[in-house]
Amino acid sequence: MSDCEEKLREAEEEIRRLKDSLDSRDRFIHETFGRYLTDEVLEEILSGKSQAQIGGERRVVTIMFADLRQSTMLSEKMDPVDFIRMLNHFLAGMIEIINAWQGNILEFVGDAIVAVFGAPRVNEYAARDAAACAVAMQRLMPRVNEWNVQQNFPEISMGIGLHTGEAILGNIGSQTRTKYDMIGRNVNLASRVQGYTKGGQILATTELLEAAGDHVIVNEEGTMWVKPKGIQTEILLHDVIGFGSQYIPHTEEGN
User: Fold this and answer.
1) Are 128 and 154 in contact (CB under 8 A)?
2) All domains in the chain, ordered by first residue
């Protein structure tokens, strides 16, 4: 074999090795972050497109907090293995819906879900998608409870709070441990909104409704003024009961 052929063979082997290394990296990223980010966001991050770069920034996003009701009491009464099994089944369905509506889950706080719509990738329909997602999540709950009953588990309910506003987003931590997260007044407000919900309810701020458009259906009788802790002024909360032609179960017309 000539020197030229030998160098060509070595170059081909190096290219093959680099490709295998990149494929391994991509698989690792998908396996590690695929449960938290949508496929579209992952692909953009892997491709290096500018709109998917993750760094500290201020951006208007829609924030979702979803939480099970009376879960602490259930965790104390149920067998731990059964409780985690029930919780994982609930979360699996919710994660699938959030991903389908381009939401990105930032954190699980026990049985609570914290998600953002419109980050890290910009989405001009983030508020609309979040409202549709919340309705779809509540519409899934009867099936979740049907499975619970089949397993001799108790029925459960969830409250969801939605708010649209500016937040600071970016990698938070150190070189050894980092997470993509959001902080700011509007994040705290979204959490407070969720705290006012009853089981099976979706509450949203006026900012969310204005950004989401006409497809969001509200129950005007459920509108309330509240004074959340840490917020200087009263805010108006709206009782979301549907999106488009889809109603959440306990408000669906004809039931």
Assistant:
1) no
2) 34-45+56-251 (3.30.70.1230)
